[in-house]
Queue: 3 jobs
Job 1
Amino acid sequence: MSEPDPERRLADAHERYEAACEAVEAVGEGDLRRLERAREDLAELFSRYEGRATGTGDFKGFIEFQSALDDLVSSLPEDLPHREVFEAVEDGFDKRRLNEADFERARELLGPVDDDVERLTERAAAREDLREARRAVESRIAALDEEIAEYDRLLALNEVDLDAPVADLRVPIEGYNEAVEAAFSGYLSRASTREVVAFLDRTEWFPLVETPDLPADLRAYIARADAGTESVPKLLEYADYSRSKLDHYVEDADALKRAVATQRTALERIDATPFRLAWPPRPADELRYQLRELRAVVPRFAPEETVARLREVRTLTRDPDYERLRRAAEARERLGAHERERLESGALAADRKRASERIERLRDALERYASTIAP
């Protein structure tokens, strides 16, 4: 089922709230509040005594109920709306013996009172409905704002040279990424886990190289246990062993199971991702900062050939054509064949215009009904 139109929902909620307010005003809020309190007092009295005052089992309860009912009705203001209904209810209980049917008849007599008190309940519900309708309109405006921002980003690509030779950027970046993946995989296979953790600690000085954090208890185990001298792949392999098999490889199988097997995901997150370059690439200035940090980190585990590929990418950021090629790469990633066709045909611009007009109508609706939306 599709969502109701927010503007229509707001108009309907406003109409319902206006009608509910008029219904309250027709009687008077003060009178309705007094009537509501009287009805609540009577309901509380029924709840307390209905089980005791009926039948022949509790004469004391019967007397107490008759007395409490008389006190309640006699204390009602003379000008209370429907006071005669409360008097009729009291008359209906003026009997030597009461049963459940007497209470049912009393509730039927109180129908007009309940109908009027319901005016307050209906107004409160209508007020909340109006608030929710307003929130729905505001939420729709926010969603349309996001749509328009996306349209603007796509429309800005209309000026991009989509036929630019982006391979001039892709080939060096992909070449580096493949090289650093292989280098880091080799490093994980030959280095101890303890050494890898120390290396990750040193990368904290380089905020653009976002390596994963390891849980404190896992780090503590790696630092103290002999198994910390094993490689990360070997530790993960140990984690899959049964305790009886693991006893042949480590001193404390239970300790490894607690520290590694329960948190293997943390070790599995240690990969080359932090050292890779994104595609499409970042703007030249941002990429140069990232490359500067990578050139300080990557040589710790990668051969000179991999570092040379980093220098090659850095040279590209100085090329006058870099930004043109980067924007073309970004456009190709973001624009599929369908989006490209809509961009060229003007359909995207038309959609943006419709979204903007829709926002204006919704804002007008909020303004139009602002005075009747209760705080």
Note: The CA atoms of residues 155 and 346 lie 9 Å apart.
Job 2
Amino acid sequence: MTKIIGLTGGIGSGKTTLATYLKSLGIPVFIADDEAKKLMQSPEVVAEIQTVFGTAIFENGVLNRQQLAAIVFSNPEKLSQLNAIIHPAVKKQFGFWLDQYQSEPFVVYEAAILFESGSYKNCDSIITITAPLEDRITRVMQRDNNTREQVLHRINAQWTDEQRIAKSDFVIDNTYTQNAKLQLDEILKILKIQQNEG
């Protein structure tokens, strides 16, 4: 039975970097945020978003994701409404994806809001990535061209590191990428031993 390893961490913690590293080792990785972005272009999801948020956030039928982000990250109720549309669609997509990897010892499910979405319940083990707050803010400002205030809004809309760590099996400190990869190598060794014993 394929084991599902959850990989999570707050925005700017370096999930994508470590997910890319896992892929380079030949481990199948499902990036929930990428799937969510694709699904937000599908007719069914677009129709649901229009029903809940109106047509003002669409330009020529194309969703303005920045505008939508500005709405949901400043309003917890709107964020819940968006998640109620996106999460079931991502979960369904993951089910299709997982079918292709039934012969693998384990796959990785990478999601920023692994806990908030309830997806952690489907994972056999969970790895949380942490990084110093200032590093995270700088990374996201550079990556997304956001202001400090916008980044903090998004950080505050997610669980804290303490909340994530309390529910995780492993924690990686990603202050330095090279060091984080070594920590991940050690975790993979443990997971392989567990898999063989299981």
Note: The chain has one domain: 3-197.
Job 3
Amino acid sequence: MLKTRIYLSLILTTIFFGCNSDKPASVSEESVVSDTTAKHIKPFNPNLPTIGLLMYDGVLTTEVTAAADVFTKPSESGEQLFNVITIAESKDAIVSEEGLTMIADYTFANCPKLEVLFVPSAYDMWEQVHNERIVDFIRNKNNETTYTVSNCAGAQLIGASGIAKGKKIVTWIGGGKQLQIDYPELLVQDDSLVTYVEDGKFSSSNGNLASYISSLILLEKMTSPEHRAFVESYLYLDRLQDWETEDKN
């Protein structure tokens, strides 16, 4: 009886493996991802200027995605014009103010050379302003960037880094008075009147959706008015500007 069971087991095992030996190798999950959902990912081209988007916990999502939205758009002929990367202190997940979870492409330790650094904000900047690793990163990258952009309270990090002494800057609406007290070496503009300002390599905006303004103006400077117009059409900005004028009859 025992021998019969052993023989049956051997026969069943042989049949099982025999039936499966002719099946094609299964497609790995990694292959599926690389062949489908990752097709849109743009390769890092060392010959292109690199746009760096700083991130940290509590960052305002729009102030990261606005620059990405603008600078990742191709030329009208479909050519990639920039590398757009996100950077954080570590590879730990970042959770934005709005709850979006993100993981940076690079850390402070391995960040490539940047042509532009975008410095966003959070609603509470105390932790970021007192994080010497973030402040040092901004200060060090300023030695290589052609342009440095702050949006909203990102201006506080510019002030803390000391890289824009004597330069015009604007922050969130209502935040200018305290910014001037904290960093008297900055030429803080009236945020009730000024949405965007540039001074040399530095530019800044009130943040949130105004971050598109700082991105589009810089895009035009780095490319052409024609490309900016193409990107604005790509983004349907005319629809946003005219959304109250639709025929309601």
Note: The longest helix spans residues 2-20.
